[in-house]
Amino acid sequence: MMPSPVIRPRPDWLWTVLLAAPVAWLSATATPSAVLTVVAAVSPLIVSFLSPASGLYILVFSMLLGPEVLIGELGSGALLGRGVTLRFDDLLLLLVGFGWLGRMALAPSQRIVLRTPLNRPIVWYVVGCVFATLVGVLAGRIRPASGFFFLLKYYEYFFIYFMTVNIVTDKRDVQRLVTASLVTCGLVSLYAIAQIPSGVRVSAPFEGQEGEPNTLGGYLVFLLAIIGSLVIVRGAVFRRWPLILLGATAVVALQATLSRASFLALVPVLLGFAYIIRRRHPLLLIWALIAAIGLAWLLPRPVVDRITYTFNQPAEEGQIKVGALRIDTSTSDRLRSWKQAGEVWLTSPLWGKGVTGGPFMDAMYPHVLTETGLIGLAAFGVLLWSLFRAGMTGYHLSPDPYLQAISLGFVLGFLGLLVHAIGSNTFIIVRIMEPFWLFAGLVVKGHMLGNPAAPQRNPDDSASRTNGLADERQFIPGLGPVIPR
């Protein structure tokens, strides 16, 4: 029998040589500014194609550090006049994502996307949203361009999850990506603190004139959960004081956002830490409670005023009254949006109005209900439950303290974002979802790396590939190991 020919992958330097010709032609025929623009636009695509891991690091450092551009009026119906806000990291994410997909398409050993417990829930949710939007387009409620761009913007961050679980190969990769995320958090926190003397509510860089303090607050709550977990899990890190210093910096920045939704989201995170400490160090919990009570008296006056403003706002039109209690206009509008969501949902209960087909609501759950109906809401619920189970599986079954801490932080941060979403569209805000889905990928892949029953595959061996896929199918239903350790 003739031996089968061995197909060797093309070396990376060959792609560089092939790119030299068009670059030389462009340099000779175009203006210098045009050349620089093209090079800047194509560089992330090339980098992620040649080295997908480098592209992932570029995305991590671009989170919350990219400028935004408002593109016209693509909304329809109740969203007319609501433009699509594109940021540098939106475009960068697409470029890096396409570069990674191109690499996978041309490398035979990387054509199989690793199957994880979240793949199917993600697909169900996206399909539900696309179906609802197509129905809205056919019904004339949604302009096709509007629905396409909003769908693309809402779900582009799923790219980060799939890139993470396929690119990360060992614990060192996890540690490097977590470190990069914490460095980004530190830079953003320092930028926010630098805005405090101006007297405005702080926000992340490049948020425009008005800023988005609520977005920064949700981001900081999630990262604080990660930081706190690395501190309290024994053996997770060798030196805790840098993390404690980073956490203190992030807390100061969080206070300066004056975001009530973010303050409320911090409550389940703190309760989760209290529960963990109570089980492991009961005396430490007592001291922590004493310190928390003492710090409550030291809260800045603007923070206290912002919290009490919910019920102390002077009488204005549009306030909801509960007996003698008045609720401020902003909170009243959010409460009315829940009632409005029920009225809109009744007109299309199964698949909703489609993305951009319904009225804008600054609350995640009624937003999902009106745009995707019961089908989309059910798919969204399955996705949330799968995320929670993935985090709990990593926390309870990971043999490594570092990976266990990341899983714990992800779970607590996830619970905080669930509360944050009561008054915000948290799960479609790219600047919150980029780090969230990065850590979701790290948690799922970390469990696979630390658990011998989790799916492992050798792309160059068809037999091991078959066994790996069998293990993956067994791993999906329970999010846990199929072989007891």
Write the layout of secondary structure elements.
Layout: H1 12-29, H2 32-50, H3 52-62, E1 68-71, E2 84-87, H4 88-106, H5 119-138, H6 144-155, H7 158-167, H8 171-194, H9 213-232, H10 241-257, H11 260-280, H12 282-296, H13 301-312, E3 320-322, E4 325-327, H14 329-347, H15 364-397, H16 401-420, H17 430-450, H18 462-478
Antiparallel strand pairs: 1-2, 3-4
Helix pairs in contact: 2-3, 2-4, 3-4, 3-7, 3-8, 5-6, 5-15, 7-17, 8-10, 8-17, 9-10, 9-11, 9-16, 9-17, 11-12, 11-16, 14-15, 15-16, 15-17, 16-17
Brief summary of the model shown:
The chain crosses the membrane at residues 12-28, 35-64, 122-142, 148-165, 177-196, 216-237, 244-277, 283-299, 368-388, 408-430. The chain is mostly helical.
| Form type | globular
Count of helical regions = 18
Helix content: 55-70%
Q: Report, as a whole number of angstroms, the end-to-end distance.
A: 44 Å
* Main sheet overview: 2 strands, antiparallel
Q: Which structural class should the secondary elements be placed in?
A: mainly alpha
Task: Kindly report the average pLDDT value.
Answer: 79
Number of strands: 4
What is the succession of H and E elements?
A: HHHEEHHHHHHHHHHEEHHHHH
How do the strands line up in the largest sheet? 1-2
The rounded Rg comes to: 24 Å
Give the strand content: under 5%
Q: Which stretches are low in confidence, meaning pLDDT under 50 for 5 or more residues running?
A: 1-7, 72-82, 456-485
Transmembrane segments: 12-28, 35-64, 122-142, 148-165, 177-196, 216-237, 244-277, 283-299, 368-388, 408-430
Protein name: O-antigen ligase family protein
GO molecular function, one term: ligase activity
InterPro entries: WaaL-like (IPR051533)
